[in-house]
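Sequence in, structure out.
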Amino acid sequence: MNAAPENASIRIDKWLWAARVFKTRNDATEACRAGKVEIDGVKAKPARIVKIGDTITARTHALRRTVTVKGVTDKRVGAKLVPDLLEDQTPESEVEAARERRQNNAWVGEPGRGRPNKKDRRARERFFTTGKES
């Protein structure tokens, strides 16, 4: 891994992107601006510096992740190298709740039928709001 020295100054938005917490750097920057990222309990602006040992809480689309910084780098790393950069401390209950929310929102149609059309979408909405498909 091409890690920066321990005293290197890495922006939080860049580190979140490099450590694969967010898919794009723009997503990480927007999350910081919206107040969805905290370092040691304090909301972080995109230019805030990350240090080894910091505890970061970031709300992504469906999940509130808590990680501890183990390494810093300004280059995006492969998925296999992510454990060198962070230690995931997200509670299992949070992961299960996110998985359940994702499953509840998923549309499972007949295999090979293709994308749902307008009629299918309306039937799905009726089913999830009233519990009846009709």
